[in-house]
Amino acid sequence: MPTAIAVTSADLVLPAPDRHTPGAAVLRPPGEAGLEAALAETTALLERHGHLVALVPPWLPPATVRRLHTVRAILETDRIALLDIDLPPLGTAVLARQLRQLTVSDFSPGVLASAARLLSHYIYAGALLGSVAKLDRIPVGLKAHARSWSPSAQFAVLAHPQPHLARLGAAAAPAHGGVLPPGPAFATHLTFARGQLSSDWVAAELAPAWKVQGVMENPLPADSARWWATPKLVEFAAAIPDVSVLYQLVASVRREQCRWCGFELIGDRCGFCAAPLAAPPPEDGAAPRARAATGS
């Protein structure tokens, strides 16, 4: 069986783009399952799939993150990768879907885990917001804060890969550069999810401007309103949909072997043990002291 890709809530599991893409495992938080149940579920996943790659974004509740690390520590296994990927909720779901697509390829678990950081750089994640008064994920100027109090205010916000904020409307002036967030220079599909904001701007204006190849609507993840600091939003994420392109992107990066746990990896850090590819330089004076201790 292919490596299992796991998320921490069912609303981060997007529909499979084809019949070959497997689903994702949902690792239930402490409020939904006790420690014994979590250990049993994780053990069953490892027995069935061999390895488990879980996305652990920093916006998760601390208790959920502690539970994941506790389960891995109790099981004393090196076959669980807990990946700290800082994307908004819908962007996290899109990345999980891409990793699910790649699990049917010939990539080893180590390459698959370390590929998450690479693929995240090609995800354009943002939202249409009715207010940025409480938004602290990207820089927000005083004028944007003040304009948030207008009942008709709407803001186009890009959080990743580069922050961008602009007020929409006929008389609106961009906060940073152009009114529309800068889009990807490669072929993408756009996934969006509606909150308590009634607007077709994402599908009607942003999608054509970004020249996306397809648009799909999904339910809004439960954590989105908290991440964007308002329930008045339409969240969106544009990403590479073609598994063959994703495969070529990952396969084009040189593979190395982790010096600590032995897994294959791409990039500069192992996805399973988080060890850097290169050993850290010795502290100043460490080498002379070592030589003195041996008498050489």
What this model shows, in words?
Helix 1 (35-49) crosses helix 2 and helix 3 runs antiparallel to helix 4 (109-120). The protein has 296 residues and is an alpha/beta fold. A six-stranded mixed sheet has the order 7-6-5-10-8-9, with helices on both faces. It has a four-stranded parallel sheet with strand order 2-1-3-4, with helices on both faces. It has a two-stranded antiparallel sheet with strand order 11-12. It is built from nine helices and twelve strands. The chain has helices at 35-49, 62-75, 89-102, 109-120, 142-147, 201-210, 224-228, 243-251, 286-294; strands spanning 4-7, 25-26, 52-55, 80-83, 124-129, 155-160, 164-167, 189-194, 215-217, 233-239, 255-257, 264-266.
Q: What distinguishing features does this structure have?
A:
alpha/beta; 9 helices; 6-stranded mixed beta sheet; single chain; 4-stranded parallel beta sheet; 296 residues
